[in-house]
Design goal:
The structure holds two protein chains of two kinds. Chain A contains eight helices and ten strands. By secondary structure, chain A is α/β, with parallel strands linked by helices. In chain A, helix 3 (115-125) crosses helix 4 (130-143), helix 3 (115-125) packs parallel to helix 5 (159-170) and helix 4 packs across helix 5. The longest helix of chain A has 17 residues, at 189-205. Chain A is globular, with a radius of gyration of 18 Å. Chain A starts with 14 loop residues before the first strand and ends in an 8-residue tail after the last helix. By secondary structure, chain B is mainly α. Classes of the chains: A alpha/beta, B mainly alpha. Chain A binds chain B through residues 16, 45-46, 64, 67, 69-71, 79-80, 82, 87, 89-91, 93-99, 102, 104, 108-113, 117, 121-122, 124-127, 130, 169, 172-176, 206-208, and chain B through 1-4, 6-10, 12, 16, 20, 23-24, 26-28, 389-390, 392-401, 403, 480, 482-485.
Amino acid sequence: MTHPHSSPSAADRRVIIRTVRLKKQYVMKDVVTEALRGVDVEIFSGEFISVMGPSGSGKSTFFNMIGALDSPSTGRVFIDEVDVAQLTAEELAYLRCQKIGYIFQSYDLIQYMTALENVTTPMAFGGVATDEARKRGMRLLDTVGLGDRWSHRPIEMSGGQQQRIAIARSLANEPSILLCDEPTANLDLNTGQEILDLLERLNQEEKVTIICATHDHRMMNICDRLMWVRDGQIERVARRNEVQVEVGTIDGE
Amino acid sequence: MKEIRVSDQPRLGFRRVLRITADGIRYRLFRASVTVAVIAVAVAFLLNILSESLIKRAVARDTRDHIEQSRLVHSWTSRLGAPGTAETILNELANTAADDSRVEELTRMGGLGPDELVQFQRAAGQTIEYMDFFAGLDYARRRRLVHQAEGLAIFDRLAGDANFQKFVAILRETPSVRLTSTPDALREFLAQWPRIRIWTEHVQAGQAIAVARIAAGLNGRDLTQALAAADRDFGHVVREAGFALDEESARVVAGQARQILDQRTVEKSLEHRAPRQIIARYHDILPGDVTTALLWDFVSEPSRAAQYLKAMQAVGISGDQLQPDRVQSLARHWHEMNRMERAGRLTADMEGGWLGLGQRMAWLLLVSMLVCAIGISNAMLMTVTERFREIATLKCLGALDGTIMTMFVLESCMMGVVGGIAGGLLGALIGSSRMLVAFGPAFAGSIPLVDLAASMGVAILFGVVLAAVAAIYPSFRAARLAPMEAMRVQ
């Protein structure tokens, strides 16, 4: 039996995200909440990982940490062997812009921009010329099936459509890592499946490393590894083929 | 798959930032307009006060000149009627340029040489300066320093050596009293004092002789009547007596004197019953309530002026040169003088200090500016804090701290410009229309447009700078936060 932490593909074992004794405390007045209590993970380049866990388990905090969106209380995060804490503000901005794509639970689209502008804003930050950005943005919107709604504002769209705009936006600068916080939570079955197919394709063809927080069981069919988070710690890490066997009990809750 | 290689983020072009900012403002138009309104009101208030005091100052200047010009007869009457007091002579010397004909006149009357005149004028200046110093003291202090002496008598007293020693001793004990110069300079001045006294007396004596000659030349007229002939025979009398009256001002004085005489004639008609009743009937009031103001109102129209003239002739008041159009022009003049005097009274409270605002107004302005600054800061602070989530999102997408700061400061500036211009126009408009209502539309020409425009520019700049500065701190804080920390602040 292989070690759960080892990569499934022996060909590409480069570690892309590594955390070392990652801890995060939120201090509010006198109450100290420990969101993460020492997390050590290694995620390999090109992997598709599902993160599961009940709400309040520290999932989102974990996401923010490995996405360089928040600073840990103690411990370290290495993205491609670079300590995130050592980066300057500009380098961090570059990392967030070019290397990592984020899909948030609450979409967080910019309300006063059209769908296309939302998608092209990261490209503008990345220095892509306007025409080129428009072309790529339209292609991305076509990919998520909203090419005809490019001029609409988020407020004119349904939750699912906004979610898809958010996905298109996260892919704007062809990131190496995609962090998704429940990307299919607000979608109907068909659209959800489309999104999953899209993510799978990105993972297979573009070798994008995808880390997904999800409750969607279908995600398990396409991911390489699963992680369960509970009480701010990684409770269990398993490869998909190990989990398939015990399919009745995978909820992890 | 892409390599992860960390490097510096390119900067977003300014035009793109501008567009994103403009889109943001358009989306939150209501919120933005409230902020703009706050700025506009602040700037409008500022400019209202500024424009009012600017206009008031200009009107005060205009009316002062005008009133002075129209009072030539008054000043000549007092000049020809009696010799000046020592104080008025010194005052006049101190405040008149050396090449003025008035100085020449004084020299001639006092029989002074040119060198003496130069010394006399300098001494007069010093005298006025010291007099202002003593006039500025309160009664108790003055009494201690110079006993009961007042005016020029102070110098008579201090010229005595014992008194001067005492004065200096007391002055040294009273640190709150600051002499305008040193005691030594004062002593030097006092050494000259007897000479100044003598010069002044000479001038006064000369003036007394001149006045006597004028009185002889009056031929039974009063001074105003005589001055009406200033451009004819009486002008010679005046010049003969030694007064500096040139042809040009003689004509002006004569014209004004005639105007005053005619005015007197017309107003005198109110002593009679019949003319009075015409006006009373027209205004539908009792004859006893008729005033000169109503009289001049009545005759400001040609047909009524003719009617009134006829009534005047009927009671035996005949003005040979009094024609309806003359009466009308008298009425116009009367109204203008009335307006001028009113404006003069309204601007009498113009205090010195910055822009003629006076201490109280300047203080009020300062406080109001402070309140405005806080208001604008608060509005900007709210705008930035309620958009923390958006800032966080933009940071997740790779926006630089500088880009975010630029966005918000730019937004503030834009709102500052719009609010500043709106407020500036509003404030100037309210200020000038209020002043126009107070002084009457005839003073529209007195509005200092250039000053007004300049103060508008300053006020707009004030709004923009204040808005920008107010946005810098909160947006700096927001931009520096890690994205998720910014989101948590909500």
